[in-house]
Amino acid sequence: MLALLLLPCLLLSSLTAETSIPNDWIEYTPGDCNLIISSPHGGWLRPAEIEDRTHGCLAADGVTCRWEKSCSPVAPTACRAVTGADINTQQVAAQLVEHLAERYSCRPHFIRANLHRSKLDPNRPVEQAAQGDRLAQAAWKAYHETFMTAAMERVQSRYGIGLVLDIHGQSHPEQWTELGYVLSKELLNAGPQDLSGSSIRALQARTDQSAQELLSGRLSLGSLMESAGYKVVPSRSHPSPGSGNYFSGGYITQRYSSLISGQIDAIQVEIASGIRLNPTACEKFGADLAQQVDQFRRINGYDVSPRS
């Protein structure tokens, strides 16, 4: 693990008065710029005191899922709980933070869950994330109500604008890295005309660029990554997923973005398994992503000075 993880962190002993949890379950390293890096699915800790997450059960309406661990699912696929970790994503996130700090003079705020996804899924609402487990609920609250909220408030108060990158991994056969803007595959395939329903709503309003320019134009994040040698969707070569697999952005990207309100945008980064599971490729990706994120933030005016 990079030296970043040895830096002093804001830990949990004094921040979770309702339920005490170990300091290393959820960690936050404050930054000195207006980027926030979230790593919810790269954890490895499997404490026995938290029961494993399970499939949920359909409620009486046949649509809503109940997430009590005691229920007996009749059709597990209807309320499926994903419990596999996004392997090596926390390492990529740590590399991204360190490269941005050392090479580009911007140390992002860094929030990470060290709990394995079988114990907690911070990229879900608390009912599904913790399934009623008291300790898992406390860890979820630390991730969101303590640390993500603190980082968002610091960025908002000091800079007025900012960007959240939520780092994930997937194993889709297309082996492309997917950038999620809370726009469905169908919307991307149709070619969205505006981004008022996206996680970069504020960016479009501030820069007056077209949806196409921001999502797949020459200076979009996807196209910048493509110029570094990566297969990315959306980008100039792959402006939409077509019939391919695509994750559009989950709970964190929705909750901590300008889609809801404010001037902080968010992008979900879903790294291909061919990159994550190859140590050399994984390390190179972290450095390349930092370079392109730095370009993207400068191109789009995120590189503002802190307010006095």
From TrEMBL:
It comes from the Eukaryota. This is Uncharacterized protein. The lineage of its organism: Eukaryota, Metazoa, Spiralia, Lophotrochozoa, Platyhelminthes.
